[in-house]
Design a protein that fits this description.
The structure is a single chain. The chain has 235 residues and is an alpha/beta fold. The protein has one domain: Alpha-Beta Barrel (TIM Barrel). It contains 10 helices and 10 strands. The strands form 2 sheets. The protein has an 8-stranded parallel beta barrel. The protein has a two-stranded antiparallel ribbon with strand order 2-3. Strand 8, helix 7 and strand 9 form a beta-alpha-beta unit. Helix 1 packs parallel to helix 2 and helix 4 packs parallel to helix 6. It is globular.
């Protein structure tokens, strides 16, 4: 499920309110591209700046438009594990494709604390959990050894990886690795990545067939294929 191009969708506002019409028009537009799914309430959607009512408004608008045509992964972040779990329990109202969950921000737990955090998250939901390793925002990385232990949780199925030096180690683990940094896309695919959460494609979505053309199994030609796919201008 977690492969190819996933689109983190922005949250448009008008006169200080979530612009539901604009959000639904955006979703309808992207449904006509070949993305694999959406990310709602992610960093790109500025979820940290939305109040609870605004977050629910965003989700209602997206699920009303998208329905079951594509999966929607919901972003969950913050400093308090218990509060994040409560958010997930509210979001369980929707039939989402899972949760994109970051390490606790600002407090910088050690790796044992990060492991505990994600285990609590995983045990609190039956839905898939995608780890979000973004240390330049949270202040702490999710190290590959920690990910190796976390994949023992059956519903931790993927990682959004933003640290290039971790790609090789993560690519060897039984977990889908999707790139979280546009400039590292080729490096991630070469290390065994399966796709990307691609912010730059908000303006011009690349077709998912591009990622299929640069399958990690094509070992002998991977570098040339990924590099060409990255440089190829979209129509």
């Amino acid at each position: 499920m977690y492969s190819s191009i996933w689109l983190p969708i922005v949250t448009p506002f008008r006169n200080g309110q979530v612009d539901v019409d604009a959000l639904q028009r955006l979703a309808d537009h992207y449904l006509r591209t070949e993305i694999s799914g959406f990310v709602a309430l992610g960093t790109t959607g500025e979820a940290a700046l939305l109040d609870p009512h605004e977050r629910m408004t965003v989700l209602h608008a997206l699920f009303e438009t998208v329905g079951t045509r594509l999966p929607i992964v919901i972003g969950v972040g913050g400093m308090n594990t218990s509060e994040m779990i409560r958010d997930m329990q509210q979001f369980d109202h929707w039939d989402s494709g899972g949760y994109l969950v970051s390490a606790p921000a600002y407090i910088c737990p050690d790796q044992r604390g990060i492991q505990w955090h994600f285990e609590e998250i995983a045990h609190a939901t039956d839905r898939p959990v995608v780890l979000y390793d973004v240390p330049h925002r949270t202040g702490v990385p999710i190290l590959p050894d920690t990910v190796r232990r976390l994949v023992e949780c059956s519903n931790i199925v993927a990682i959004k990886a933003c640290v290039g030096e971790h790609f090789r180690a993560l690519g060897a683990l039984p977990i889908s690795m999707l790139c979280g940094s546009d400039e590292l896309f080729v490096d991630c695919l070469e290390a065994g990545g399966t796709g990307e959460f691609w912010r730059v494609r908000i303006c011009s979505p690349m077709t998912s067939s591009t990622s299929r053309r640069v399958s990690p199994q094509d070992e002998s030609t991977r570098h040339a294929r990924t590099s060409n796919a990255w440089r190829r201008p979209s129509s």
